[in-house]
Model the fold of this input.
Amino acid sequence: SEAHSCCGVDYPLICLGEQEVACWFHIHPWDHLPGALMVTECGGVVRVAGGADYSARHTEQRGVIIAARDERSWRIAAQSLEDD
Done:
């Protein structure tokens, strides 16, 4: 399944195993904290592009958040963004 660029849709789909990865280019805690918690509780990975785990400390307005169902998927997505 492809990403919808909507946190309220993409995070749950990753948790359900229906989507492998999603990326967002705006970092707003109100958009990402609930979904990041859901994904990590399901065994997934949510990090900023530099590799740090996403948390409420990431308060900048712009950046990249990558959520993935597993470590391998996260690394592939992060590498793909670096190549662009």
Observations:
- The first strand starts at residue 21 and ends at 26.
